[in-house]
Design a protein that fits this description.
The structure holds 2 protein chains of 2 kinds.
Chain A lengths: L17 H15 L7 E5 L14 E4 L5 H12 L5 E7 H6 L1 H10 L4 E6 L34 H8 L3 E6 L5 H9 L4 E6 L3 H7 L5 H7 L6 E3 L36 E8 L4 H14 L3 E7 L8 E9 L13 E4 L2 H13 L4 E5 L10 E5 L1 H21 L5 H9 L9 H6 L6
Parallel strand pairs in A: 1-2, 1-3, 3-4, 4-6, 5-6, 8-11, 11-12, 12-13
Antiparallel strand pairs in A: 5-7, 8-10, 9-10
Helix pairs in contact in A: 1-6, 2-4, 4-5, 9-12
Chain B lengths: L1 E4 H12 L3 E4 L6 H10 L2 E4 L3 H13 L4 E5 L1 H17 L3 E7 L16 H5 L10 E3 L3 H17 L3 E7 H4 L2 E4 L45 E3 L14 H17 L6 E4 L6 E5 L4 H13 L5 E5 L1 E3 L3 H7 L4 E6 L5 H7 L7 E5 L7 H9 L4
Parallel strand pairs in B: 2-3, 2-4, 4-5, 5-7, 6-7, 11-12, 11-14, 14-15
Antiparallel strand pairs in B: 1-8, 6-13, 10-12
Classes of the chains: A alpha/beta, B alpha/beta.
The complex binds thiamine diphosphate (TPP) and iron/sulfur cluster.
Chain lengths: 426, 368
């Protein structure tokens, strides 16, 4: 049975091992399909079943224990060529440890053929029970017979959506079944039931393979769904530079700032704190300054505090962590809790807080104003920045207004009216 | 001028360098990299876990398509066996590791530089994986592109090491001034015959052919193998191949050694830093100099394998201060060993950034 695909002499398995039969039937199946060996990639797992690469005249790939299905998935998707046949050799042990990969490939209908060498135990490591060992089957680790059932792999992959699943008893010539599976466009899994003479036969003398399979309730029915389309990833043809995703900022204003200034803005999630800080940073860039903006929020971004730190500087900014800001703006209770320590630690500087809050004592200048009442919870952060710029025009108010009017919330909010609401404040 | 973050620069750079597929599994603080990856790469896939991520990447890489992923320690830990596989198979790929505060799940939204010792020993047997670290916004552009070049030219996974503080904050960036990124290509085998998948060329790197190509048989294996790519026990030929995996790094490392060296004449003190602590070091050195203190600065970018050139630099100083955001100086231990040395000290912190003042004080505490 030597052919263009397989050198059959000296296969590396124990005498009588079912792996011989699977290898030979695979070789025969490939020959019957009249394929070019260079159109075949055999991906082998770790286990006795996987030490066969050298015997195949095809492309071969030998990876890790249990991962061959995922590796083969990457190869098939990378090749994206239906004339290439990617075949996985894997054991029941490999299929157990790598079950997620089998399910994923079945579910997506990845065009590979998985041949599971199910000898109902871990052969290479000494005959221990695997996830596919049937109840009652004796192994090195269950000398009295395994006390619970094995998975029905075919049913698992079937329910995951596999388009071709077949369980066979590994006896005689089953190459036509393998040929059908290999030829199949989409995910095909053949679970070949076999017995390992070195451990399986030794611990279960006299038991016949077909009987074990039947007793385990493992059906030999098979299932096909030719309607399913193969999964593929096609290169996108409409890709643009990420830089086009963000607005270009032109420096058309001027700032009088000569030293860096840092502002911490603290509020609640959903209060537009991050956006407000980002818009301030852009307005500073539009005023010819360098900026950094950092956000701080809990992992659950939709609730709790939200705080942002903006540094604006006429020079390039290196270290962008602020231990003590020049300006602290607090608009909500959450923000106050998060930033309360600054009230004590800020030795000088300016603190602006919503008048609905009860701020702790501080040595800094403290100003309160009813931002939330005036602008609502969504816009209080922006209004507080307008107020700060009005009081302390480190960048021109027009730079901020211009940035707001070009932002993604422009049109939804009347910024000019917001600004007028500050008339009469200092 | 745009307001952008390091994640955007990194992904744009890698896409321009020839990254073909981004494979992702979500994890903070690498999520922006994932999102940009889906937007910018020609292809992308959502993996169901990080082991799958690495295996799919290896599959793509074996067909000649450069894959990229981004993760943080918990995900990286799951990838380790597969990274060893890709290293042994000599499959180019980029793994961006965004460090966060550990141990374990730690604090997802807090930066750190705590994974360097792990990276240094990540390959069973102690083989080095090129590890390049980002120390500025400009590095977010140049280092990933250099990593891609290194990955394909040396046929190896390459780690791009970052931390929350270098991929998430926004800053102004003049993107029009960024240098062109060179597109990389796999070192292809030319000709139709005599192909041995792991036969090294003169730079100790074997030529590449995609698995599944139409005409020449390829063999890819993660087990100990000879130049044919066939599993062998520890035969002489197989051991020569395994040795080569180490030798190809040392032989070619110089070409991929990136650092900033800012030496001041007459200084006996060198501050060494990298990654998210680099800016604190730059700022501290600037302040020290303006106060009249002479001090030199080395920002290491190629961290692993340790470039021998660093030792040449270090040997010229009486006092060395290594600043890094971790418990007790991981790079310091890699460079100088575990035992304390009088003339080598560290400035370290966990759960917060090392500040310029801390570095400044450490320099000021010692010597002239
Ligand atoms: C991650 C990992 N865990 C454990 C092993 C050890 N190991 C090698 S082969 C094997 C079991 C092989 O059993 P199976 O997949 O059923 O194949 P068989 O040997 O029976 O053909 C195991 C557990 C390994 N190589 N990798
Ligand atoms: S140990 Fe069992 S599975 Fe492995 S080769 Fe021998 S008979 Fe086959």
């Amino acid at each position: 049975m030597e052919n263009r695909f397989l050198a059959t002499s000296g296969l590396p398995f124990c005498k009588g091992c079912g792996h011989h039969l699977i290898a030979r039937n695979t070789g025969k199946a490939l020959e019957s399909l009249d394929l070019d060996p260079m159109n075949v990639v055999i991906v082998t797992d770790i286990g006795c079943n996987g030490i066969i690469d050298r015997k195949f005249h095809t492309h071969t790939v030998h990876g890790l224990h249990g991962r061959s299905v995922a590796l083969a998935t990457g190869i098939t998707l990378g090749l994206d060529d239906r004339s290439k046949k990617v075949i996985v050799f894997i054991g029941d042990g490999g299929a157990t440890i790598g079950l997620q990969h089998v399910i994923e490939a079945a579910h997506r209908n990845v065009d590979i053929t998985v041949i599971v060498h199910n000898n109902m135990l871990y052969g290479m490591t000494g005959g221990q029970s695997s996830g596919l060992t049937p109840c009652g089957f004796k192994t090195t680790t269950s000398p009295d017979g395994k006390s619970y059932s094995g998975y029905d792999l075919c049913r698992i992959v079937g329910s995951a959506g596999a388009s071709y699943v077949r369980r066979i008893i590994c006896m005689g010539d089953f190459s036509s079944h393998l040929a059908e599976a290999i030829d199949w466009e989409g995910f095909a899994l053949v679970e070949a039931m076999e017995i390992c003479p070195s451990y399986g036969v030794k611990y279960n003398p006299g038991r016949k393979l077909a009987g074990i399979v039947k007793e385990a309730g493992l059906s030999l029915d098979f299932h096909k769904n030719p309607e399913r389309k193969c999964f593929s990833v096609k290169p996108s043809t409409i890709i643009k530079s990420l830089f086009e995703e963000v607005p270009d900022v032109e420096a058309c204003f001027e700032s009088t700032l000569t030293e860096p200034i840092s502002i911490v803005l603290s509020g609640s999630a959903g209060g537009g704190v991050q956006l407000a800080a980002e818009l301030l940073a852009r307005a500073a860039m539009a005023s010819g300054l360098h900026v950094t903006k950092k956000g701080n929020y809990p992992v659950t971004v939709g609730t709790g505090f939200s705080s942002a730190t903006v540094i604006m500087s006429p020079h390039k900014i290196l270290f962008n962590e602020v231990s003590e800001p020049d300006v602290l703006i607090v608009v909500t209770e959450d923000g106050l809790r998060y930033s309360a320590h600054f009230f004590d630690s800020m030795r000088e500087g300016l603190i602006i807080a919503d008048s609905g809050l009860t701020p702790p004592p501080t040595n800094s200048d403290l100003i309160t104003l009813d931002f939330t009442k005036k602008a609502g919870t969504r816009n209080a952060a922006i209004l507080s920045l307008m107020y700060y710029l009005k009081r302390n025009p480190v960048i021109p108010m027009e730079a901020f207004m211009d940035t707001l009017e070009k932002s993604r919330i422009a049109g939804k909010v009347d910024f000019r009216a917001m600004l007028s609401s500050l008339d009469g404040t200092e | 001028m745009i307001l952008t973050n390091g994640s955007m620069l990194i992904i744009e750079s890698l896409a321009r360098a020839g990254g073909e597929i981004f494979i992702g599994y979500p994890i903070t603080p690498a999520n922006a990299l994932y999102r940009y990856g889906t937007m910018r790469f020609p292809m992308w896939l959502a993996a169901p876990d990080e082991i799958t991520t690495l295996q799919w990447m290896a599959g793509f890489s074996a067909t000649g398509r450069l894959p990229v992923t981004a993760t943080s320690f918990p995900g990286f830990a799951l990838m380790v066996e597969s990274i060893n596989m890709a290293f042994m198979m000599e499959l180019p790929m980029i793994v961006i590791l965004v460090q966060r505060l550990g141990p374990s799940t730690g604090t997802a939204t807090c930066g750190a530089q705590g994974d360097l010792l792990f990276l240094n020993g990540v390959i069973s047997g102690g083989y080095g994986v090129p590890t390049m670290c980002i120390s500025s916004m400009e590095d977010c552009w140049s280092i990933p592109a250099a990593a891609a070049k290194c990955a394909v030219e040396l046929r190896t996974p390459v780690f791009v090491l970052t931390s929350k503080e270098s991929v998430m904050p926004l800053s102004d960036m003049d993107v029009s001034s960024l240098p062109e990124v060179e597109r990389v290509s796999y070192p292809m085998h030319a000709g139709q015959s005599n192909y041995l998948p792991y036969l090294p060329e003169n730079n100790l790197v074997p030529d590449f052919l995609p698995t599944g190509n139409d005409s020449i048989q390829t063999r890819v294996t993660a087990s100990t193998h000879d130049s044919e790519g066939l599993l062998r026990h520890s035969t002489k030929e197989a051991m020569a191949n395994t040795h080569r995996l180490h030798d190809k790094m040392t032989a070619n490392l110089d070409e991929f050694t990136y650092y900033e060296l800012d030496e001041e004449d007459g200084s006996d003190t060198l501050v060494l830093s990298f990654g998210i602590t680099a800016n604190a070091a730059r700022e501290a050195v600037g302040k020290l100099r303006s106060s009249g203190r002479k001090v030199s600065l080395l920002i290491a970018k190629t961290l692993l394998p340790v470039p021998p050139r660093y030792f040449d630099v270090l040997s010229g100083y009486e006092r060395i201060i290594v600043a890094e955001e971790n418990l007790d100086g991981q790079y310091r231990r890699i460079l100088f060993g575990a035992s304390d040395r009088e003339n080598v000290t560290g400035v370290n912190a966990i759960g917060r950034m090392v500040t310029p003042d801390e570095i400044l004080r450490e320099v000021a505490n010692h010597g002239k």
